[in-house]
Amino acid sequence: MKKIKIGIRNLSEILYKNGHIESGFFRKAEASDGRNNQKKIQKDRGEDYQTEVHIIREVFIDETMLTLSGRIDGVEKVKDNYILEEIKTTESFDENKKIEYMSQLKIYGYIFSCDKELEFIDLRLVVTDIDLTKIQKFEYNYSFIELQKFFYETIKSYYYLFNKTWKKYEENKNLVKTAPFPYSSFRKGQRECSAFIYRSIRAKVQGVLEAPTGIGKTPASIFSFIKYSSNDFKRAVFLTARNTGRKNIRKSIEFFNTKNLPFFTVFIISKKEICVNDVQICNPDHCPYASDYNNKLREVLPLFSQQMIYDKEDIEKLALKYKICPFELSLDLSLFADLTVCDYNYVYDPIIQFKRLYDRAVETVLIVDEAHNLFSRTVDMYSGVISSDSIEVLRKYFIKKSKSVYSQLLKLKKAITSLHCDMIKEFSDDKFYKIISDYDYEINKLSDYFVRKAIKYFIESDNFPDQEIVEAIFEFFAFNIRSGFTESSTKVITEKKGKNFTFETYNPDPSEIIKKINDSFYSTIMMSATAFPLNSFSVVSGLTSPKFYSSEYPFPVENLNVKAIPIDVRYSNRSNSLDSINHIIGKSGKSIVFFSSFSYMNQYLTKYPAIDNDLVQFSGMDEGTRNEYFNKVTEHNFNNIYAVFGGIFSEGIDLNGIVDSIIIIGVGYGAPDFRSELRKEAYNTRDLNGNSIVYIEPGIKKVIQAVGRGIRSDHDKCNVILIDSRYYKFSFKKLLPKHWKL
After folding, report:
1. Mean pLDDT of residues grouped by 10 in the chain (742 residues)?
2. Could you give the CA distance from residue 322 to residue 305 in angstroms, rounded to a whole number?
3. In 3D, which of 478, 4, 7, 27 has the Cα closest to residue 293?
4. Taking Cα atoms as reference points, which of 735, 269, 312, 250 lies closest to residue 530?
5. Starting from the edge strand earliest in sequence, which strands make up the sheet with 500-506, in order?
6. How far is 289 from 547, CA to CA, in rounded Å?
7. Measured on CA atoms in the order 311, 313, 314, 319, is the torsion positive or negative?
8. What residues pair up with 25 in beta bridges, in sequence order?
C-alpha cells in the first residue's frame, strides 16, 4: 500500500491558492508578523480556548493511505458547541485568499467533527494587517455533511494531481528494498559508516559520523537513508555548503538511479542563481514568471513523476516552458521529493528558513554534510546589523515619498547616531568598536516600527521600490528578526567603518537555538572529516547526546608523507618567512600551497610572482571563474595552485594524486579579532576551552580538510609539508590525525 503524508496547510495552498507571487520580502514580513499577531490575538481569548490543537486523519483512496495533519490555531468550546479559529496576517486580503484560508479551516472542521462526532461546527477566520490596526472576522456554521462533501472533493482533486507520482513512489520503494549497494564494493570503512547512519535513523537519535575525506560519506549516507525509507516512509534534507558539494551529491544520485535505487531528488538553488528573469523583482508587473504562479503550478505538478532528479538546469527548463518562477517551483517540488538538497540556511537561518519544511520535520531526516562549517555559519545567522549607509539610502528615498515613514526613519537614525556618538570618544586607531553594556533595546522597537510603516506604504501606494531600496529595508527587517534571538552571551556593538558605522546585536554562541532546530527532526546526522573533539563539536553544533562513530583512515598510510618545518610564520614575522617558503615551494614539485589569508598570499606573490599556468585564488571569485579553475584542475592544466584555507580549493575538490605536494603555511587561523574574542569568552563562561574551540580547533580542521584533497584512492600519493613552529606544540599536535605520524 502506498503511504503519503502531507500537511493540511500545504494541501490547501496547492489546490486553492490563486493569484501572483508577491515580493518574497513582503511575504517574509507578513509571516514574521503573523506569528506575533497570532499570539497576541490568542492571548485575548477566554479560558476555554485551546491553542495549537494538533489533528491527524488517515484517508484511503485507490490503495493509497493519505495521512493529513495540521495544527488548528484555536479551539473554543461554547456550551455544547465548538468554534475552530484560523488567524492570518496579510496586507493584501482578497476573495482568492479568503477561499484559500477557508479551505484549510474547512478541512480542520471536518477532521475535528469526525473526532468529536459533531453534526454542526462553527468556523471563524480572523484576518489582520501586520500592525493589527484592521482586524476582520468571518464566522460560518457548517454541517458535518457539508464539510464531508468538501473534504472528499479536495482529496479527489489532490489524487488527480499526484496519482502518477504516488504510483512511481511505490515502484521506487519496491526496487530499493531489494537493491544492493550500487558500487562494486564498499570502500574500506564505508560499510561501517553506512551501518552507523542506518542504525541512528532507525533509533531516531542524533548521530555524528567522523570519517576521512575520500571514504565516501555522501553515498553511504544516501544509501542508508533510502534503504530505511523504503520500509518506513520518511523524507530527508541533505545540507551542503558549497556548489562543489552539490555537484558531488548529484553525481552519486545519478549513479544510484542507474542501479535500481531510484528516488525523487530536488535541489534548492538560491533565488539569485536560478532566477531566469532580466531583473530580480518578484512582482507580476516586472516578472512574467511571477504572474498567475499558482495556476501554472497546478499544470506542472502532475509532471513531477516524469524524472527522478530536479537540479538547476531541470527546473529552469520547466520555468521557461511554463513561464513559472523557478525558485518558487523548486520549493514547491521539494514537498514531494524523497530527498531535498540545499544550503544550510534553508534550515538554520531564521530569515531564509523553508518554513513548510518544519510542518513535517518530525518525519524528516536531516543530514548535514561538512558539519564543521556549521559553527561559523550560524553565528552570522543570529546576529543583526544596521549600517549608516542603508539609513542614508532610505533617508534620500523617503524624504520625497512619505512624510510619515521619513519621520519614523529620522527617529531611528537619531537613536542610533546618538548612541554611536556617545561611544565615539572611546574609539582610537586600534580600537574602532564599543560594546554597549546597558542597552535597552529601544532601537529594535524603532526599527520594527519603521519596517512596518515602510511595508504598509509600499503596499498601499502600489509603488514597488527598486532593488537598492528593497535591500536597504531588508537589512532592517533582517536586523529585527536576527536580533530577536538574544542569548545571555549576546553583545550589542557599535563599530566605526571609515566615515560610516554599524550597529549590531552579536550572538557569539547560537548553539542553543541550533539545538532546538536539530531536536525537531526525526533524526539528525552530522558528517565531517573533522568532528573533534566530540564534546566541543556537540556543543557548538547544537546536538543532544549524539551517538558517535569515527572511521579509520581508508588508504595506505605510507602513501601520505607528512612532515613539519618549524618556521615562524606568525603575523609579526611574515616578511622574514617569505624566502624560506619560496625555497620549500621550489623543491616540492607540482604543489598546492595554502596560506592563512589573502594578504599573506599576496605578500608572497608580490615578492615571488606567479608564473604562467599557475592558478591563484582571489577574493570574490564568481561561479564562472571557479568552474574555469576546476576544469583546469581536472585536466591537470596548471603548474602550482596558490589558495587560502577554507576556500574553494580546501574543500569539495578532488586532486586525486595529481599534485606532488600540499604545502600548508600556518595553523589555519589568522590574527584574533574582537568578535572571535567574544566567542572565546562565551565558551569560557560555559566551562569550555574557548581558545581551543574558537581558534585552534577550527584552524586545524581547515588544515586537515585541505590535506584531504590530496589522496582519494589507494593509488594516490602525496607529500604534505606543514610550515609553522606551532605544529610541535602539544595543544596543536594532539588534534592532528594519528596516521600523519609526525
Report:
1. 83 91 64 76 88 94 88 91 93 89 97 96 93 90 97 93 86 91 94 97 97 92 94 88 80 93 94 87 84 93 92 95 95 92 94 82 93 91 94 95 95 89 67 82 91 86 81 92 85 87 93 95 96 93 95 93 95 94 95 94 96 90 83 85 86 78 91 91 94 94 91 90 94 92 81
2. 17
3. 27
4. 735
5. 384-387, 500-506, 491-497, 433-436
6. 46
7. positive
8. none
Helices 403-424, 388-401: inter-axial angle, 10-degree rounding: 150
Judged by DSSP in three states, 324 sits in coil
Residue 324: count of CB within 10 angstroms of its CB: 26
d(CA 16, CA 11): 8
How do residues 98-125 score in pLDDT, each as one tens digit?
999 999 999 999 999 999 999 999 999 9
Which of helix, strand or coil describes residue 642?
strand
What is the spatial distance between Cα 405 and Cα 643, in angstroms, rounded to a whole number?
Answer: 47
Sequence-distant (≥ 6) Cβ neighbours of residue 284 within 8 angstroms: 20, 21, 290, 291, 292
Strands 265-267 and 207-210 come out as unpaired
Whole-angstrom Cα distance, residue 295 to residue 324?
10
Q: What angle do CA 127, 13, 164 make, to 5 degrees?
A: 170
Residue 66 CB neighbours (<10 A)? 20
Q: What is the pLDDT of residues 510-544, one digit of tens each?
A: 999 999 999 999 999 999 999 999 999 999 999 99
SS3 of residue 474 by DSSP: helix
Q: Please tell me whether residue 401 adopts helix, strand or coil conformation.
A: helix
